[in-house]
Write a structure and sequence with these properties.
The chain is of the alpha/beta class and about 210 residues long. It is built from eight helices and eight strands; from the N terminus they run βαβαβαβαβαβαβαβα. It has an eight-stranded parallel beta barrel with strand order 1-2-3-4-5-6-7-8, surrounded by six helices. α1 runs parallel beside α2 (about 45-60) and α1 (about 25-30) packs across α8.
């Protein structure tokens, strides 16, 4: 049976933005603030380095109930026994990713268009990240922003739960949740903030209020 994943306040770690205190301490603070899903995204790291960082993250998350997601590295996800692997449209094929992690782990997929959403196979993919909602400097090669209206259309089409990502912060929670998304994935709203724990608390509170 696959584990559950709380998509409501989803942290994507960025090594550059987290450089001040590091990704592990950022994750620790965010989880103390209520975040329950942490994705390790490090586009320049080799698998060995991803595993090393992932082990430190798992230790930091131990006992908190928070889950670790590995971005775009199936070998690292498997080695770490991570809860989930997340892949983009330009990464490995969905079937290949599912085979690599087995039937008992979660698989997330980035979708950028309505056509991507229609192509999602709910038998293979557990959730999607709809990106980017807004433009963001944390991912220079991102697709054109879909906006809130685009997010709503993609969520309506997609057969699995969805989280919005791209230029999002607590101030967008009501719109994003109102568009049907299960939560917000954020990078700079927590990474690099003076107080990541406080930033996480604000995000979690905003999502909770948006759901009332």
């Amino acid at each position: 049976m696959r584990p559950s994943l709380d998509l409501s306040a989803y942290l994507v770690l960025d090594p550059g933005l987290c450089a001040g205190i590091g990704m592990v301490e950022t994750a620790r603070a965010a989880v103390a603030g209520g975040v329950r899903t942490v994705q390790l995204r490090h586009k320049t790291a080799a698998t060995r380095e991803m595993i090393e960082i992932g082990r430190a993250l798992l230790e930091a998350l131990s006992g908190t109930g928070a889950k670790l997601v590995i971005n775009d590295d199936a070998a690292a996800a498997h080695a770490l026994d991570a809860a989930a692997l997340h892949i983009g449209q330009g990464d490995m094929a969905v079937k290949q990713a599912r085979c690599a992690i087995g039937p008992d782990k979660l698989l997330g997929l980035s979708v950028e268009t309505e056509d991507h959403a229609r192509a999602v196979d709910a038998g293979l993919v557990d959730y999607v990240g709809v990106s980017p909602v807004f433009g963001t400097p944390t991912k220079a090669d991102h697709a054109p922003p879909v906006g809130i209206d685009g997010l709503r259309r993609i969520v309506e089409i997609c057969p699995v739960p969805a989280v919005g990502i791209g230029g999002l912060g607590p101030q967008h929670a009501r719109e994003v949740i109102g568009a049907g998304a299960d939560g917000l994935a954020v990078v700079s709203a927590i990474c690099g903030q003076p107080d990541p724990e406080l930033a996480a608390r604000r995000l979690v509170k905003a999502v909770e209020e948006a759901r009332r």
